[in-house]
Amino acid sequence: MYSEKVMDHFANPRNMGEIPDADGVGVVGNMKCGDIMKIFLKIEDNIIVDIKFKTYGCGAAVATSSMATELVKGKSIEEALKLTNSVVVEALEGLPSAKIHCSVLAEEAIKSALIDYCKRQGIDPTPIVGCSGDCANCENHNRE
Amino acid sequence: MTLKVYADNAATTRVSDEVLEAMYPYFSIHYGNPSSLYSLGREAKIAIEKAREQAAALIGAEPNEIIFNSGGSEADNTCIGVYARFVAPKKGKHVISTKIEHHAVLHTLDALKKDGFEVTLLDVDEYGLVSPEALKKAIRSDTSVVSVMFANNEIGTIEPIAELAKITREGGAVFHTDAVQAVGHVAIDVKEMGIDMLSLSAHKLYGPKGTGAMYIRRGLYCPPLIHGGGQENKRRAGTENLAGIVGLGKACEIAGAGLEKEKERVTALRNRLVEGVLKIPYTRLTGHPTQRLPGNASFCIEAIEGESLILMLDMFGIAASTGSACSTGSLDPSHVLMAIGLPHEIAHGSLRFTLGHYSTDEDVDYILEKLPQVVDRLRAMSPVWDDYIK
After folding, report:
1. Over 80: is that where the pLDDT of A143 sits?
2. Contact, A27 vs A37, CB < 8 A?
3. Which of B68, B207, B314, B343 qualifies as a FRET site for A87, CA 20 to 30 Å off?
4. CA-to-CA distance for B371 and B254, rounded, in angstroms?
């Protein structure tokens, strides 16, 4: 059973779409597992001024994408990096246990887009994000 | 959104007005215990025996070959689990079934495995058909039970039951079929088809939930799963679900009387639905194109995920079903979709409509109006779809 908040974000996803001239793009998940999230970032003066997502997946995958983008929009890169999956879950008023991995995926999708941004700027993302970004497509997104 | 179109009749059906009407008096007027000697009890007993005749008539059985119980799962547990254990000392510990069975069968088989049984699960082809040749090869002298579902709940494929039953008999084993999806929807004659045991459930044919029956051929003994009183000719203990059994009997009678006409009507609706849905690009039918249950229209829709489909269809008041991984609570889509050889990424987009007695032309029109919108919306959201349109 999904919370009303999850259903609201599924039915009316916030920030759904693409940014054609994005400053950073991140893709996580895979077809085999059944969920893929793609995040587009527009960053000005270290601030996420715009963010869009595209998601293939279940109701929770769409809702966590929507909520995660909403939570980091207007935030600085450093603040956005503090976003954890549990913050997303809490904001959605909970997720069924089998769907927690969707929130992990949403967290990773944002990080992945930020890593892409850093790389495009010629900055080493490791000290900022905490990893090189090579794990962005890792299969570990199902850790719960 | 209020319900506009119920298209999940394989999950359950609404109790028909006539069935409900028949059941009512058995809650508060003729409420006697069928085992009681006074007239209130005798009335109840007579009602049960009438229901037994009605159920038997629907599948070509004799009334004393029908044992009422709680439904399909109990029947499967009894006919496979209890029977295999009972005959194991004499016959052996080998059981054959298929990869596309309902979990009531598959988990019963898992339990048998834990008790040292060997289980062979037959493969199916891309349409979900079991090969009689494969059964011939798999059957051994120590095979006690062969269980093949009459028709699959997810993809609707109807199995070559008579042929499989014949091979089983020639191989010296007993043939059971889980016919929960088929009874009342397609013609079944247990004698003609050579079926030894069969599971059926009332709520799949406009009867109440929690009531079902098993057919066990005369001369075949299967001990009870539930021990206790001597009800059901000592084959299934427990005070009878009187109103439920009356409802089951009535549902069987109605289904039998209108079977061919209803089958034709629902098949026509189904065909129109299938035709319409397949107009959506990158959509495929799952299951056999013709050898399938009248009401079953099951698909895979590429680049979107089944649970999202169901949730969004629900927003339009359409109740349907999926076998996607997200709905199964695991990383794998349904075992049936895997068994027919679909890759994960296709199976994730599974969508099943199952039409029934209350389905109308307007229902099909409404689904065909809304589904393309839902698919478009989800595809617009899907990063995978971008690769398709490139």
Report:
1. no
2. yes
3. B314
4. 32
Binned at pLDDT 50, 70 and 90, residue B328 comes out as: low
Q: Does position A141 have pLDDT exceeding 50, yes or no?
A: no
For residue A135, the model assigns a pLDDT of 53
Which two structure tokens, joined as six digits, stand for A5? Answer: 């908040």
For residue B25, give how far its alpha carbon lies from the nearest alpha carbon of chain A (Å): 36
pLDDT at B327: 65
- The answer to whether the Cβ–Cβ distance between B331 and A37 falls below 8 Å is no
CA B325/CA B331 separation, integer angstroms: 5
Q: Which of B305, B334, B378, B387 to mutate to test the interface with A (most CBs of A within 10 A)?
A: B305
Query: ipTM of the predicted structure?
Result: 0.90
Domains identified in chain B and CATH numbers: 5-13+258-389 (3.90.1150.10), 17-255 (3.40.640.10)
* Helix or strand run (H / E) with residue B67: strand B66-69
Higher pLDDT, B182 or B325: B182
Nearest to B185 by CA among B198, B204, B199: B204
Distance of CA A130 to the CA centre of its chain: 16
Domain ranges of chain A: 4-138
Is the confidence at residue A81, as pLDDT, over 80?
yes
Q: Is the dihedral of CA B162, B167, B173, B177 positive or negative?
A: negative
> In whole numbers, what is the pLDDT of chain A averaged over residues?
90
Nearest to B308 among A38, A59, A98 (CB): A59
Domain A4-138 grouped into CATH 3.40.50.1970 = no
> Residue B298, Cβ neighbours under 10 Å: how many?
31
- Measuring CA to CA, which residue among B325, B366, B367, B320 is closest to residue B347? B325
The question of whether A102 is a catalytic residue gets the answer yes
Angle at B129 between CA B114 and CA B196, to 5 degrees: 60
Question: pLDDT for A24-72, tens place per residue?
Answer: 999 999 888 889 999 999 999 999 999 999 999 999 999 999 999 999 9
Smallest Cα distance from B328 to chain A, Å: 10
CA separation for the pair B257, B259 (Å, rounded): 6
Nearest CA in chain A to B381: A54
Element spanning B94, H or E: strand B94-98
